[in-house]
């Protein structure tokens, strides 16, 4: 029985010593601040130390950002956290917080000596800090710069930060920052976000009863979460209204009216549409920041993996910082076309575990209008439209073989080429099914996708010259080992993504190329331009060559391997592609306004010969336009 008694005595002594030290510390701190006001030179020295140790030039708060479609409608929001910063905050809700949290806000210098003293007396009754005596400025300091640990060291830091905030900011700036910072549960921060989340309307449109209701939440967000404890929140709202009467901010009659107003929550549903497209926009924004802010050049020039890693980490930090600033990302998304594209992939591949991807580009504007990252795609899953790199098969022939050949030799599409077997050293490619067709026209060779003519044409053009044209497009994984004859029929080390291949096919619009983009521009909340692509259009081949290529691609659809391709368009042209062992099916095609590409396959490559005749890639492509 001795040990428990000893423990209680030790605890009592500890509390007593703590009480004495705090009682001595607080008056001393108060005296020092008062003395500093009297001794200007000493004040200057103390403030210099504060300015050196606690740097506060401005307050930057993370807030919700938005993605907008081609018509300016929001289709995706960043809501971790969900915060919308506002400067115009109604006086009523300010008064509710001031009355309940800090009645002497406009008199103190960041901390309230009387409130802290009262808290000390209460805390000596417990083994921990139960009452903080914190002013609004102290709470803001804690939310911005400190943690929520209940220790006296943290409390002292809180006081110093609060004093520094009062020196650097006006009272209006502090109360505004506080009301934009506080937590309202459900990942909601700030009064404007709370108004929009709980009542689905702006703060300025809330009634006073609704303002008081949301003001009841931050005192204990879990306890006063209105989605779970509505009655508890309503009871605290009424207590806050009573405090407003006591403080003579409103009359008893008005208080009764406010209390009697029925509160009806209208929870704002998160806007998170078209995940396939939204995830790609995030990736493109990262690329845009990397290019415009110089990260791309530095990463390419990095002389070590460690340096490259450091630069990539810095890029990621900048990317996250931009997203947290509440930016508006204006995109080229066509919602109707996006729905059609994802539906075409979801419903057009009724085979277990078989996947697909599709990309639709407005080739006149060089903008990505829609894309599908896979069947029933979920946000931040592997997005096959730009993350899957596969062998292109014969879909590469127009870009690497026929276009360069026609441009170099100005050959007519009726020129004959040998479609019999071909061998060079130990490389002996064959046509599909082993067929030999003698002399055929260029038009027929591409339409029927014969392999041996393609290899002969690449050899005649010259591998280096043909690849110099291919490298004008945005293919990111072409390597030196690819510079060989098998590339003519799709033999690459890593291959291409559906987006890359579809993007390259936009050259067949008019013989020029400019990278296709999803992002039109990025602005801040005030509409100021932050980022925008500055791409340059490049001529790839002559107008004559392009006209011939369009005729060749039309023949593929009219009388060749893509004869099933249809669309409500005056022009349809394209090219199919099948890789070794039937691991990949491709169809990239053009209509009047769009270039669209479809890839079909398994994530872990597997033979699909059993469905080859069904041409699922063409069926998906057709369904995009229905």
UniProtKB/TrEMBL annotation:
Penicillin-binding protein transpeptidase domain: residues covered: 356-608
Q: Which residues form the Glycosyl transferase family domain?
A: 83-244
Instruction: Note whether Ligase occurs among the keywords.
Output: no
Asked whether the keyword Ribosomal protein is assigned, the reply is: no
Ranges annotated as spanning the membrane: 12-36
**Subcellular location field:** Cell membrane
* Keywords associated with the record: Carboxypeptidase, Cell membrane, Cell shape, Cell wall biogenesis/degradation, Glycosyltransferase, Hydrolase, Membrane, Multifunctional enzyme, Peptidoglycan synthesis, Protease, Transferase, Transmembrane, Transmembrane helix
- Residues folding into a coiled coil are none
Q: What is this protein called?
A: Penicillin-binding protein 1A
Per the UniProt record, the source organism is Bacillus chungangensis
């Amino acid at each position: 029985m001795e040990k428990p008694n000893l423990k209680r005595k030790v605890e009592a002594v500890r509390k007593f010593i703590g009480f004495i030290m705090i009682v001595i510390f607080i008056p001393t701190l108060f005296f020092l601040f008062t003395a500093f006001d009297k001794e200007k030179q000493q004040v200057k020295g103390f403030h210099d130390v504060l300015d050196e140790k606690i740097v506060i030039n401005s307050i930057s708060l993370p807030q919700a950002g938005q993605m907008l479609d081609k018509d300016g409608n929001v289709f995706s929001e960043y809501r971790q956290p969900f915060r919308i910063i506002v400067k115009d905050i109604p006086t009523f809700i300010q008064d509710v917080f001031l009355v309940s949290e800090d009645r002497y806000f406009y008199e103190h210098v960041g901390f309230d000596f009387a409130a802290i003293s009262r808290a000390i007396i209460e805390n000596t009754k417990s083994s921990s800090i139960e009452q903080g005596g914190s002013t609004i400025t102290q709470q803001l300091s804690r939310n911005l710069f400190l943690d929520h640990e209940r220790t006296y060291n943290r409390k002292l830091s809180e006081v110093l930060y609060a004093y520094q905030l009062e020196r650097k900011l006006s009272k209006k700036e502090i109360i505004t920052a506080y009301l934009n910072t506080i937590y309202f549960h459900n990942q909601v921060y700030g009064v404007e976000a709370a108004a929009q989340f709980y009542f689905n309307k702006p703060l300025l449109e809330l009634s006073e009863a609704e303002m008081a209701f949301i003001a009841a939440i931050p005192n204990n967000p879990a306890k006063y979460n209105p989605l779970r404890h509505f009655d508890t929140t309503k009871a605290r709202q009424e207590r806050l209204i009573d405090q407003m009467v006591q403080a003579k901010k409103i009359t008893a009659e008005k208080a009764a009216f406010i209390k009697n107003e029925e509160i009806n929550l209208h929870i704002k549903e998160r806007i998170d549409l078209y995940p396939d497209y939204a995830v790609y926009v995030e990736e493109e924004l990262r690329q845009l920041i990397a290019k415009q802010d110089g990260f791309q050049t530095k990463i390419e020039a990095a002389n070590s993996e460690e340096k490259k890693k450091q630069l990539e980490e810095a890029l990621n930090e900048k990317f996250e910082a931009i997203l947290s600033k509440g930016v508006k990302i204006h995109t080229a998304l066509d919602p109707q076309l996006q729905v059609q594209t994802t539906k075409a992939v979801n419903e057009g591949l009724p085979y277990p575990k078989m996947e697909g991807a599709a990309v639709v580009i407005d080739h006149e504007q060089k903008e990505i209008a829609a894309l599908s990252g896979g069947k029933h795609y979920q946000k931040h899953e592997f997005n096959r439209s730009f993350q899957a790199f596969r062998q292109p098969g014969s879909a590469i022939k127009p870009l690497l073989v026929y276009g360069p050949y026609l441009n170099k030799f100005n050959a007519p599409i009726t020129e004959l080429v040998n479609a019999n077997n071909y061998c060079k050293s130990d490389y002996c490619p064959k046509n599909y099914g082993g067929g030999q067709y003698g002399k055929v026209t260029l038009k027929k060779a591409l339409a029927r996708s014969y392999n041996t003519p393609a290899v002969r044409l690449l050899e005649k053009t010259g591998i280096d010259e043909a690849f110099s044209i291919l490298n004008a497009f945005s293919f990111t994984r072409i390597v030196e080992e690819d510079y060989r004859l098998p590339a003519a029929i799709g033999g690459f080390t890593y291959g291409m993504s559906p987006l890359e291949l579809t993007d390259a096919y936009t050259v067949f619009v008019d013989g020029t190329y400019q990278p296709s983009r999803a992002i039109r521009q990025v602005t801040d909340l005030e509409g100021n331009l932050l980022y925008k692509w500055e791409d340059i259009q490049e001529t790839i081949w002559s107008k004559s060559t392009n006209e011939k290529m369009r005729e060749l691609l039309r023949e593929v659809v009219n009388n060749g391997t893509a004869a099933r391709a249809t669309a409500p368009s005056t022009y349809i042209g394209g090219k199919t592609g099948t890789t070794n062992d039937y691991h990949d099916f491709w169809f990239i095609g053009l209509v009047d306004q769009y270039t669209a590409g479809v890839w079909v396959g398994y994530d872990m490559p597997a033979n699909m010969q059993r469905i080859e005749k069904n041409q699922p890639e063409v069926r998906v492509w057709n369904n995009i336009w229905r």
